[in-house]
Amino acid sequence: MKRNILIIAGFLFSLLVNAQNDEWNITRTNKDNYTGVSISNGRIGLLTSPEPFKIKHTVLNNVYDVDPVLKVSQIVHGMDFGNLDVYIDGDLVTSKNISNWSQTINMKEAAFTTRFDFKDKAKISCTVYALRNLQYTGYIDVEINALVEIDIKVVGKITTPEKYLNPINSYQVLRDVETTMPILQTVASTPFGKHLVATSGTFIWHDINSSREHQRPELKHAMVTEYENTLSFEKNIKKGEKSEFAWTGAECTTADFSDPKSESERMVIFNLLNSRDVLLAGHKTLWEELWEGDIIIEGDLVSQQDVRLALYHLYAFGRSDNDLSIAPMGLSLQTPYNGHIFWDTELWMFPPLLLLNQDIARSLVNYRSDRLEPAKRRAINYGYDGAMFPWESDDTGEEATPPFALTGPFEHHITADIGIAFWNYYRVTKNKKWLAEKGYPVLKEIADFWVSRVTKNDDGSYSINNVVGANEFAPNVDDNAFTNGSAKTALYYAELAAKVTGNFSDPNWAEVAKNIRILKLPDGVTKEHSKYNGDIIKQADVNLLSFPLDIVSDRESILRDLKYYEPKLSKEGPAMGKSVFSVLYARLGDAENAFRLFKESYVPNQQKPFGALSETATANHSYFATGAGGMLQAVLFGFAGLHIMDDGIIQKAPILPKEWKSLTIKGVGLEKKTFYVN
């Protein structure tokens, strides 16, 4: 009889998992070679773990510390408030004594749920939220269903990374009139002392409000070490009953608050004295609004899940209200790249967001306009005019690239990439006030930089010498195709911005833009740089002149460049190159090659179990938001046929791969248009 019960239970569990594995939910039951996904709200990111009641780490957006050894800034891994220790009848619940484990990421609601059985005693679920409506807080919702009578002990923890300085741990019960508010808290300085970080936490019992505080379990405080501060309770659960509770934490720093200690307490109190329904309703409403911009693929569930997971992460890593940007790994990792901001944002992540969520897109461009003055100082320091934006940017807007990397002094196309993003933002939004106040001032300084950066040749043409191009395998070259093409485009856009805003347009902008060299090989293939001889390339460079720059625009030339450079792409390079090739083949009407390259742009980089993207096929650093931006562009600008033009977003010659029944793009542009491909 017991065996039959187990078979039935296993069958029902299988049905549950399959029911949850759909276009919005990715459910996995195998945790081998586990790579987590990020549960983020644009301010804090919680990286998931296969262990019950655990997260791997916390990442804090725009909170940087400076390593005196590397001499560059690093984004901060915060204190971890997302971990619980749960004991049932004295046994600590671990991955070794549970069964029927599954995890589900609900992309629609930005919720991550772990479910499992503990021996034959309990069925448990734990759902993690980084609350979108309360951007400095997280919320962990737990349900324990007792199959037999059990005693539980639950320990909430604030764990401070051991590199932090001078942690101060406390527990206090705050009181106002008849309301008591138990607050666990740790305050410490970041590893190199730049910021003070304060994290507070408390338990919430959903069936007990503030007028019934005497029914709360007794809380016990223990400081395990100076780096682990804990608060616990014990409770008996009768057979057939369940216990529902939450653990909530708030993490604030001096990067955003003059008094992060008090503010983190207030935020936890706010969560404590609001119901779960109210808190989660606010969170879900904001995510529902985000998903007004969506991509719907019919007939291919795997592609639908992959695309939604990519779009989920871009939404999760950005916000519309903080004027911050998105690093290549978003809010999933501190390394690689130290959480710095690159061209990855403007060229890869920004375009899909510009189509589907102009509010987040505005934050990304405002991040750059807010750092215009440091870019102007940097141009002066290197002997140029205008603004010279850093290859790697942090909170200061100064160059944050490690000194050993040649990209810092020489990868100048970033300055043009920013200008292109600025004009495209105006193209989509038609926000003349923004263009006058923020857009044109940046575009002007970018144009002035390129006029001072070029060298005039004897034939009247202009060269841009000694640069690192998009293909970073070829450093310190002259007349790199993408650098020259992006500079031409940025100069042209500065002219247009001047006309719209009624500002002065320097005649040198047009003169230089018209005459910057784009080199060719003898057979007509666009030459990547002046000494290029067929070497393997790191990523797309020449082909970016066809998309997104539209400089190489005739069909024959596009196809010639595609066929020449695709075999040159390194297997060790990042995935974005193939997404560009996919867009171009789709626009040429070749759905087969477009779909092949769409899949090659990300499938080799997917990590178990959820398909999180790594930068390369041989790495497991995720989530690579740059790759997400690339594969989304293949769908939006390739298959869907969308184009950003001076008169807005239009659709030209969409094409559907045979593997899909239909493609729908919802919420495009300010008018929230819907585009179909059937």
Automatic annotation (TrEMBL):
Residue ranges annotated for the Glycoside hydrolase family 65 central catalytic domain, each copy included: 308-497, 529-601
Signal peptide from the UniProt entry: 1-19
InterPro entries: 6-hairpin_glycosidase_sf (IPR008928), 6hp_glycosidase-like_sf (IPR012341), GH65_N (IPR037018), Glyco_hydro_65_M (IPR005195), Glyco_hydro_65_N (IPR005196)
A Pfam cross-reference name: Glyco_hydro_65N
Keywords carried by this UniProt record: Hydrolase, Signal
Residue stretches making up the Glycoside hydrolase family 65 N-terminal domain: 37-147
GO MF: hydrolase activity
Domain of life: Bacteria
Full protein name: Glycoside hydrolase family 65 protein
